[in-house]
Structures are given as structure tokens and as C-alpha cells.
Backbone:
């Protein structure tokens, strides 16, 4: 009889019994014990039922310790469901700046970047068909265009002065 077939019922029963008090899923306990078994047991060596029980209890204790140390972020502020007008104005300005920079990129980059920024989220195949280029050349072209766009936008953004003040 193989090890999995032999130990599965005992391991499932022990894990189900211990999981109730830990707040951990019984399947997670089982998985941890199987992993421990694979790490520690010698190939072909018999695994006593007592070892299985001890390992399940040890994993359950470890899970309880971890659960005690973990604490929820009760004080974390929730995301504002309705962003204020300041955020909307900043977002709109960033979009305008990005679209203007996309329009100034060289070659086929404006068409490619516009397709990539499309709200319809087209696939590479659709973009390649629209631009009438091979799908294989789309990745390198995308990389070059994004690099160009990155350099253009970096040049337009003012670098902060010493002390965090902007010029």
C-alpha cells in the first residue's frame, strides 16, 4: 500500500479535528503536514500514525501562534468612493499631458500608443491588424515608443529642488 493511500484518512481526520480551534482550513493543515513529511522522512521508511498526529498538532499550534501575531488594519482609511474635484482635475491634466506627448512621438508611435491606451483594450492581434504590421514586430515597436514617451515626459516634468521644493 502506498503512503498517500495509507495516511490520507488519518491525516484528514486529524486535520479536521485540529482545524476547528485554529481558524485555519483543514486542507491547509493537511498540506503543511504532507510538506513536512516530504522534507523530513527518509524514502521508503514507514511513517507511524503517532508521527502524523504529532505533526498535525504542531502545525495547528504554529497556525494559532501566527493568528495571534496577525492583526487586522482597523485604522487604515477606506478608499474614498467619490474622489474630490482636486483629484479629478489632476487626473484630467495628466491625461491631457499624456495624450499631447503621445501625439508628438515619432513615426508610427502615435498610432500604436493610442491603440494601447484605448478603452476597448484591443489585443496585440487587433492592434497589429489596425496598424498593418506583423504581430511579432509589435513588441519591439511598443518598447521603443514607450521609451521615447518616457524620455519626453521626463524632460517635461520639473525636477524638485534640494529640500523637496519644486521650481
Residues:
Amino acid at each position: 500500500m502506498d503512503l498517500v493511500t495509507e495516511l490520507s484518512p488519518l491525516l484528514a481526520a486529524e486535520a479536521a479535528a485540529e482545524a476547528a480551534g485554529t481558524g485555519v482550513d483543514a486542507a491547509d493543515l493537511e498540506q503543511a503536514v504532507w510538506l513536512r513529511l516530504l522534507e523530513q522522512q527518509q524514502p521508503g521508511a514507514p511513517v507511524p500514525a503517532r508521527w502524523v498526529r504529532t505533526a498535525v498538532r504542531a502545525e495547528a499550534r504554529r497556525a494559532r501562534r501566527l493568528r495571534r501575531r496577525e492583526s487586522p488594519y482597523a485604522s487604515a482609511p477606506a478608499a474614498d468612493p467619490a474622489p474630490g474635484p482636486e483629484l479629478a482635475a489632476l487626473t484630467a491634466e495628466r491625461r491631457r499631458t499624456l495624450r499631447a506627448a503621445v501625439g508628438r512621438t515619432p513615426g508610427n508611435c502615435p498610432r500604436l500608443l493610442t491603440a494601447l491606451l484605448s478603452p476597448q483594450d484591443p489585443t496585440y492581434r487587433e492592434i497589429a491588424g489596425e496598424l498593418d504590421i506583423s504581430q511579432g514586430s509589435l513588441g519591439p515597436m511598443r518598447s521603443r515608443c514607450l521609451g521615447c514617451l518616457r524620455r519626453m515626459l521626463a524632460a517635461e516634468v520639473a525636477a524638485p529642488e534640494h529640500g523637496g521644493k519644486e521650481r
